[in-house]
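Fold this: Peptidase M13 N-terminal domain-containing protein
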Amino acid sequence: DEIDAVETEEQLHSIIARFINTGIFIFINWRVEPYVLDRGSYSIILDLPNFMLPSLSYYLDANEAGMREVLRTFLIDTAILAGYPRAEAENSAEESISIEQELAGWIAQENDAMPQAGPMAVNMSTLVERYPGIPWRAILTRLTDHCETVGFDCLQSVKRDADKFLFIDLSYLERLSFALHTRPARSWIPLLRHSLIHWAAPFLDSRFRNAEFQLRRGLTAGFLPQPRWKFCIQRTGEALPSMTDMMFVSKFFTPQDSKVGGEVIRRLKTSFIHRLQNANWLDDPTRRRALSKAESMALNIGAPNNYMF
């Protein structure tokens, strides 16, 4: 209902932020990785979106019309299951695929040259200034609110406007920002609607699950559906790896286990450093670098004390 009620850019931004923080990477994807130019630092990689079809060529190649038809059938069937009239479901499916084709076309075009050293990190203020059509602050606010709700202190360096964001495709972000800012908010409803249904289908009743199976079978020869319970466990682990790790540790291990385990790995680290100090096959410069790295190794049992900066 909220998607179908979108009228303004503010409402559109709110939906996009909720999608991205739920794991529906409709326009952009982001992930946290070590920053290779600054050892010990982590950055948010701004990556390309997850499309409903697994390959850009399925959207752009005239010979792949069959794949687009498989997706079109899935979108129509699941929209009807969600309560939309057939005529609206058909029109919405066509518009959704058309939007994804356009996004895929932007990605396929020649992109800006990447610096030899890799992308340089920028801060939130720079993102907002360069790409105002993308709801950066709404995304950040929802993410940090989720962190605080479950007791985590995350993204503090981003709040301080530190340079934590790395670009994958500058040209794509420019086109996306311009389109989101200049086109009517309601023009994006078909893609929002079908992206949500596509993401949720495996978790809904057997009718949606069967439709999703037909989609996968049409795209991947020999695909067999998993039992529902196994699928749900797998998806939960993929979406919340740190959370599930912490739940496992808290259920099956005591605080005393953590102390014992911590002592074991501290002794292992001490032993490792001792061996480096006495390794006769290392020259002095190499030994110094190796010892510096070894001494900076962080030790975690079960889960780190802090997540994401």
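Residues 115 and 206 are 49 Å apart (CA to CA). The two ends are 36 Å apart (CA to CA).
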